[in-house]
Amino acid sequence: MDVQRLSAFTLDGRGGNPAGVVISAEHPTPEEMQRIATEVGYSESAFVALTEGRTASVRYFSPVAEVAFCGHATIAAAVALAQARGTGDYVFRTQAGDVLVTTALGSESRVLATLTSVTPEVRPLPQGFLAAVLPTLGWTPGQLDPALAPAFAYAGAWHLILAVSQLSTLESLDYDYEAARLLMTEHDLTTLQLCWRESELRFRSRNPFPVGGVREDPATGAAAAALGAYLRNQGLVRPPARIEIRQGLEMGRESLIEVDIPSGTAGILVRGTATTIEPE
Predict the structure, then answer these.
(1) 81 touches 90 (CB < 8 A)
(2) Mean pLDDT score, 170-199
(3) Which of 240, 233, 235, 234 is closest to 259 using CA atoms?
(4) What is the band of 248 on the pLDDT scale with cuts at 50, 70, 90?
């Protein structure tokens, strides 16, 4: 089984979030896909089975479990497809729904991929959740940004949106891995989208991912889409709008995610590049 390794949302080929990509005529068994994802060891691996033309069935596996949708592995898989079969539009049929992915050549002949999420949702936190999650993060209510109310947001996977008022709070994050994993599993959360609003359209982010067996993601496309949906739902941006999310700095893997937020209830667009990880 040929496993490609690419890093998505990189800055000039540096940083980003690594993903495994397997392109084949049909999917291996779930057990084989899980084995490969565990051996690859990245936060996600995407398994792409081309069904007809530019339509593909895509499944995503973390090192410990399958997930319905993953943004950075979608970008990585789209770039790999474009390099092998040409740029243009692809449709990824995922467990979360159909995701349109557009690829085109950008600067320096690098492939730029843009995914359009499934229809997003935003909902308030269940009673008692905030009081339960803050101690796992070592945070207090007084450290939160009062302008960005905590919420759950979905654009293919559910995420907690939680904003702090000071960058230093985000930078010094040291969370309780097992407590967070149990709480996230109970509420079907994929990552915690922890963020700080640098300006109206610029954010810093960190994304714990203990349910996937990963302490932290350096770039999280699904959570970026969820944040875009949240901002639109809460009236915190004026669509159409584009925001930038910088992530992974604290991990030494600086990443840049561009998010386009259209008007209405349409899917959120997430854009980025991916580069091949050369074997050491």
Answers:
(1) yes
(2) 98
(3) 240
(4) very high
Which residue, chain included where needed, has tokens 């947001």? 153
Torsion angle of alpha carbons 173, 10, 102, 27, nearest 10°?
Answer: -80
> Model pTM?
0.97
Distance CA 83, CA 145 (A): 42
Strand 255-261 versus strand 269-276 pairing type: antiparallel
Nearest to 220 by CA among 60, 35, 28, 80: 60
Is the bond preceding 240 in cis, omega lying within 30 degrees of 0? yes
Q: If you write DSSP's letter for every residue of 245-280 in order, what string do you get?
A: EEE-GGGT--EEEEEEE-STTPPPEEEEEEEE----
pLDDT tens, position by position, 103-152: 999 887 899 999 999 999 999 999 999 999 999 999 999 999 999 999 99
Cβ atoms of 2 and 8 within 8 Å: the answer is no
State which amino acid sits at residue 38: T
